[in-house]
Amino acid sequence: xxxxxxxxxxxxxxxxxxxxxxxxxxxxxxxxxxxxxxxxxxxxxxxxxxxxxxxxxxxxxxxxxxxxxxxxxxxxxxxxxxxxxxxxxxxxxxxxxxxxxxxxxxxxxxxxxxxxxxxxxxxxxxxxxxxxxxxxxxxxxxxxxxxxxxxxxxxxxxxxxxxxxxxxxxxxxxxxxxxxxxxxxxxxxxxxxxxxxxxxxxxxxxxxxxxxxxxxxxxxxxxxxxxxxxxxxxxxxxxxxxxxxxxxxxxxxxxxxxxxxxxxxxxxxxxxxxxxxxxxxxxxxxxxxxxxxxxxxxxxxxxxxxxxxxxxxxxxxxxxxxxxxxxxxxxxxxxxxxxxxxxxxxxxxxxxxxxxxx
Length: 358
What we know:
By secondary structure, the chain is an alpha/beta fold. 41% of the residues lie in helices and 16% in strands. It has a 7-stranded parallel β-sheet, sandwiched between helices. The protein has a 6-stranded parallel β-sheet with strand order 10-9-8-11-12-13, with helices on both faces.
């Protein structure tokens, strides 16, 4: 079995993490799994993922990607813009089995008059009998409802060698409550303005009882939001995965105020590190998040509700302790190994059906 994931990206986002992790996991099962990335992204991609060049091939243009693909049994699109690439590949190499790793409902990312909205909508039906799979039931259901396409469910992955609690509840989690949030000004659905406004309100409410860190953007990007920044916080900048894990290790509360999360990898990683989490109630977060058990799920458009639940965590160490233990236990259900085995079973089923002429 040989599998090629088309992933033209600089990396650093949750979807890229998933593909890299699961490609590595498939390779531990002695499967020839590789990633195809645009040559223009080689340097930033290699910097973000250790030893990725061992299983990543780079292409200069469409023709080179088609040539590189000819030796694989299965080629997988990983974002809506790669489905056209996949279509070109199987038109040139019809023996290749096409597949689509749907990691978000991408039409939600664009206004309806945006040219990418149309391409995102068409991506689900562009290839007849494309073998689609996703890691959350929310994605599966929304695709079925809007496009009539059946999507196979695979297990989500978590790098539990990196994201694991390095402290116990009684030592390094310090008395001053450390709140951390990801802020991405270039991604409006991640609610960067709303996040900074909430953090300002929380800091003004609790002052020296809390400290605040953010990550995911430069100072220049942060300034472009045009929101008040006159409160005490530290911008950790754009972090690699290892740096994110280090930051979460030293934090008590992780906040994600996205309008929705198709899965919410950062939330699960934060749980694995022992953080209490505030997460959006819309999307695929329910794969692992349970309100009041290991997290608080909130209407992220309602600042009053968000501030209420953050305040509840700040003021109640017993709830943070509860989420500490329950979040770590929840994260134990996820691993690269489980996800890769789930993928292998799916791909094996695809190839068997192909051999039977289905």
